[in-house]
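Severity: low
Component: inverse-folding endpoint
Summary: output formatting inconsistent between runs
Steps to reproduce: submit the following structure tokens with default settings.
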């Protein structure tokens, strides 16, 4: 789980069975669904003063559930846990099928100042199942650990927000689950409030990774997320995004693409439930990924 800096959104690599036609159809379908649903919701559910009173002025703000990070940081001295209850992905490649399960993966955050926090992501249990020619082989164990530091650059709740998130990955996963190498990088979420309901996030991430064939051959990977968020009510929000990873491994460049949908719902100022589904758009990306989680602030 090297690419997604501890958010649990890693994409399996290999040869899938989707072609360019299927990928194009998925993009069109996802975009059409988002546009039509958002338009209907905007007309049917206005943001009323009564609804606004149900949530305080400073509700929990998380980096879940999308691949894109938020620019917000955890308040000083506050502990926040953003836990992924379950994350499942499937990749069909050349007659083989790979399933990856991650269970109870928490990100523990501590606010260091009014504009910064430190984050530790653990994955206590990862299960990989590979099925080839009717036979299934599996690997189960602890996943890699990620340590991140977030520094918000702009003012809190500004219309334009920017943050820097450097990270390192500690190779705590056993062989077959992780690559056994230290890796790191930096993520830069850039957010802009288009209206009271709509927001746009662009989140590039540059990483220095170990080579697949020769770990000493370090190389760059660039991930980019384009995220469009919609605030249905003060409690519920939707997001649609397009994600890509360009991994310039010396043994061969790996390009991945996905179209993603996510929903988050506040049960109160300190508690959030969320979930989502990601659709692979090319042969190197997991066909589907489904996840759900909960976040709490203490």
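Observed output (run 2 of 3):
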């Amino acid at each position: 789980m090297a690419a997604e800096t501890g958010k649990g959104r890693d994409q399996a690599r290999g040869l899938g069975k989707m072609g360019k036609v299927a990928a194009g159809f998925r993009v069109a379908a996802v975009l059409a669904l988002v546009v039509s649903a958002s338009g209907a919701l905007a007309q049917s559910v206005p943001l009323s003063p009564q609804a606004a009173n149900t949530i305080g002025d400073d509700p929990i703000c998380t980096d879940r559930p999308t691949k894109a990070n938020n620019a917000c940081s955890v308040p000083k001295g506050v502990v926040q846990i953003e836990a992924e209850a379950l994350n499942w992905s499937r990749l069909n490649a050349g007659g083989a099928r790979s399933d990856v399960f991650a269970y109870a993966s928490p990100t523990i955050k501590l606010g260091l100042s009014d504009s910064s926090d430190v984050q530790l992501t653990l994955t206590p249990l990862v299960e990989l199942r590979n099925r080839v020619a009717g036979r299934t082989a599996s690997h189960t164990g602890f996943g890699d650990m990620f340590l991140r530091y977030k520094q918000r650059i702009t003012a809190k709740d500004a219309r334009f927000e920017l943050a820097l998130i450097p990270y390192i990955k500690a190779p705590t996963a056993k062989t077959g689950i992780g690559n056994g190498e230290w890796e790191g990088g930096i993520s830069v979420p850039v957010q802009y409030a288009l209206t009271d309901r709509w927001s746009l996030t662009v989140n590039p991430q540059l990483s220095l990774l170990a080579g697949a064939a020769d770990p000493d051959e370090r190389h760059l990977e660039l991930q980019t997320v384009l995220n469009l968020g919609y605030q249905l009510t003060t409690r519920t929000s939707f997001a649609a995004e397009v994600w890509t990873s360009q991994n310039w491994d010396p043994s061969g460049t790996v390009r991945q693409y996905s179209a993603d949908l996510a929903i988050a719902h506040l049960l109160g100022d300190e508690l959030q439930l969320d979930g989502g589904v990601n659709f692979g758009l090319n042969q190197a990306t997991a066909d589907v990924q489904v996840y759900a989680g909960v976040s709490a602030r203490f």
